[in-house]
Each structure stands twice: as C-alpha cells, then as structure tokens.
Amino acid sequence: MANKPPPFWQREKYTPYILLLPAILTLVFVVLLPLLFSLYTSFTGYRLIRPESLYQWVGLRNYERIFSDGDFWSAFGRTIIFLTIALNVEFLLGLGIALLINKITWGQRTLRTIMMFPMMFSPILVGYQFKFVFNDNIGILNNALQSLGLSDGAIPWLVDKYLANFAIIFAEVWMSTSVFAILLLAGLFAMPRDPLEAAKVDGCTPWQVFRHITLPFLMPFVFIAMTIRSLDVARAYDIVDVMTGGGPAGRTELLWTLIARTGYDNARMGQANAMAYVSIILSIAFTYYFFTKLIAARKYMGGAA
Asked: Domain 69-119+168-300: which CATH class?
C-alpha cells in the first residue's frame, strides 16, 4: 500500500510560506485593508455622523473641492515651508553636535546617550512641554525674559502667527535634531582615516579637509536622515495640535491638522481621506528627491548605485 502523502502544510516546499503567513496576514489586515477602505471613501461623500453616506459615490468631487480650496493650499504651502526650515536647521545642528562629540575622547558614550533623550519623548509630551514654556502668562521663557529685563511684557509666542510658527519649529527641532546627530556620528565613526591623514600631510587646512573629504563622505548619511525626517515632518500633527491647535486663525495649520479637523471635527471623512491621499504625494516627492540625492552621493564617493 502506497504511503499517503502528507498534507500540504507539512511539505517542505511550503514551509517558508507558512512561516511568513502570520506576517502577511498582519500586513493585510493592519495596513492593506485600511488603505483600500480609505481610498474607497475618498470617492464617496462619507460623513461620520451619517453611516449610510459610506455608499454615496461622488467620484472625483472630493478631489475637485480640494484643488479649489484655499485653506488646503495654505496648509500645503505652510507644510512645505515648515518641512524645509526644520530639516535644514536639524541638519546643521546635528552636524555640529556630531562633529563636537566625535572630537571628545572622554565621556563620549555618556554624551551619546544624553543626545538621544529628546527623541525618546512622545511628540504629545513635547508639545505640552513647549506649550508651557511659550505660554503668555506662566511660561518659563516670558518669565525669564522679564526677570532679566529683556522684555517689558508678555510676548504672545503662541498667539502671534509668526511667533507661533517659530515656537512649533523650535519644538520640532529640539525633539528631532538627535536623529541627524546620531546618523552623522555613525558616519564619522565609519569614515576611513587614510584620506584624512593624507590631507594633513599635504598641508590642507581643517576647513579644506571638512569641505572636500568629511562632508562628501557624510552626504549619504545626511540624505538617509533627510528621508526619514521628511516623512515624519510631512505628517506632523501631535506637536502642532497640542501647542496651537492650528491657530491663531489657522495660521499654524499643517496638512495633517487640517485633515484631522476636516475628518473628525467636521465629520467629512471622505474629503479628509482625499486630502490624505494628496498629501501622500508630498511625502513621495520628498522621499524620491532625497533617494536620488543619496544615489548621486554614493556614486560620487565611488560606492555602488
């Protein structure tokens, strides 16, 4: 009597697929299905307070409204400016911190640990922290300025539209500069010493060594950090919502605070999901830009494409 073949899940060739099945199912139910559902609702008039509107197909009407909505384009432009300023400031500060820590020979491990503290805090906690720092009446900053005689009265940090944007960017930079610093410090540790020693022997100044050797070697690490941070900043929500709620008069509202207000406060979830998919284009554009820069930097340094 011939041996009965084992069930397919016991066959060796199916073992990799069976081991991957839990991860695949998790991705399907946690990522893929919600994405497909939100994409579908972006073509409907779905309102949270009217469940039956989930089946109200409106085609491209939500997207047409977005492209004619001044508030959306204001938030879009503000997000671009916010992202550009935050990334560049974080890069410059992170580079400076990494270079300083790389020069230190004693207590470097302790400094690296301390450097990571800001990124360990929740964005909501950071938002509340700086909301009280910049508070008009009880804020630490206003009290310090008045005590030192540098200000005659309370400065409306979170009420004035320019100062409010500055306060939000300051909080974002404080929390995330360590991402750049850590990655750039890793790049400095990985840098070969032979080119540096050869440059010193040839009589190059410290600035020339940094400009023509150190910085080009670090650029791939810079663009990796830029890619990671651009995705984070493009979907910034927590800090802005806690510190200003998008105010005053929407002057600090970014894309995702506008999307949250449209979807949850105004209950227009279909239009909010359409805004979210348009904002994804921003994230993809920045990711693609920094990825091409990363490939170019690696080619410049003689690495693989």
From this structure: mainly alpha
